[in-house]
Write a structure and sequence with these properties.
The chain is mainly β. The protein contains one helix and eleven strands, in the order βββββββαββββ.
Length: 207
Amino acid sequence: MDDIWLAPIGEPLDLTVTAGLPPVPLPEQCHVEQLIWHGDPLTGPLRAHVAARSTTTATVRIAAADRIVADVRIRRGPARTARPHALLRTDLAPGAAYTRLFPVTKDVTTDHVPGAEPVLSTPSMIAFMEDTAADILRAQFAPATASLGTWIGVRHSGPAGIGQAVTVTAVLAEVRGRRYLFDVAATVDGREIGDGQVAQTLISLAG
């Protein structure tokens, strides 16, 4: 394969994209730090190029025709190992879940489309998702512990109007030391309006 650390940004890479994980061959002494799937299957002719790069990471973008299929973030060096901490009173494992109901009020809507009724804004929906995910951690906080949102990968796929209620569910998907990754989904009357993942990272407030 082409050297992803030297290939020009945006130029096609000479590599074979596979249907396995990771979907691209890894250079030596590298690991996949993050895989963002954009919803389309790995079928048909696929192409890849380096979409972004720093001295330690490179994002390989996989596309089919004009559609982006996935972004693979590759980092130099071995994968990071989880480090134990004492910021929670009880350890949490994948599968821990929580559901909250949020009313759609005027202050969480956007009305930037002329002639259309105000609808729930994307930043507000993401805030609902992050808050629901954080609630799973908050219930187990040790003294002087807090959490911060550190990553968002969310799709806003449907509207919610003033007076409706949004049901948000967060499910813990992965734990890496202080970083907790959650699958999140938002629905209105059983109709999905958003889904994706958010990450929360624990911090210590102790001096």
